[in-house]
Amino acid sequence: MKNTTTLVLCHLLISVLSFNAQALEQELNLNETDSVLVFEGDVNSGLVTPLAFQEETVTGSYGSVTIFQNGRYDYVSNAAHDVLAEGAKYSEEFAFTALDSTGWKLTVNITGTNDIPCLLYTSDAADE
């Protein structure tokens, strides 16, 4: 009986460790606005065994991601992306490796929207 119990516990431990050995992914879908996009997330959301990282920032074509030691991350776009036509999409991937060698990838999709046009009126008339 003792050998059977040990085998079951050993199998359970291997299953948990294997979970973190696989590549993990998250996808972030954002709509462009008239300002820079900022999003805070957590790699460990939904994971039984949390991942730890070396803090680093990766810069892409449309923004950057900073990942913190506890698995939290910040995405900040490098512009408001107002040039995106309605329905047009930018997409880029950011890859990180946890301290236990687990790969993690964040895919960021930014979709253009139909912004309301702004009209700015200025007058050059001088008071007389």
Summarize the structure.
With 128 residues, the chain is α+β, with helices and mostly antiparallel strands.
Query: How far is the first residue's CA from the last residue's CA?
Result: 103 Å
Query: What name does the CATH topology of the domain at 23-111 carry?
Result: Immunoglobulin-like
Low-confidence stretches: 1-21
Number of strands: 7
* General shape: elongated
The pLDDT mean sits at: 79
Describe the model:
- There is one protein chain.
- This protein is of the alpha+beta class and 128 residues long.
- The chain has a domain at 23-111: Immunoglobulin-like.
- Helices cover 15% and strands 36% of the residues.
- The strands form 2 sheets. A 4-stranded antiparallel β-sheet has the order 2-5-4-3, with no helix packed on it.
- It is elongated, with a radius of gyration of 23 Å.
- Residues 1-21 have low confidence and may be disordered.
Attribute tags:
128 residues, alpha+beta, Immunoglobulin-like, 4-stranded antiparallel beta sheet, 3-stranded mixed beta sheet, elongated
Layout of helices and strands:
Elements: H1 2-20, E1 24-31, E2 38-42, E3 56-59, E4 63-67, E5 72-77, E6 89-97, E7 103-111
Parallel strand pairs: 1-7
Antiparallel strand pairs: 2-5, 3-4, 4-5, 6-7
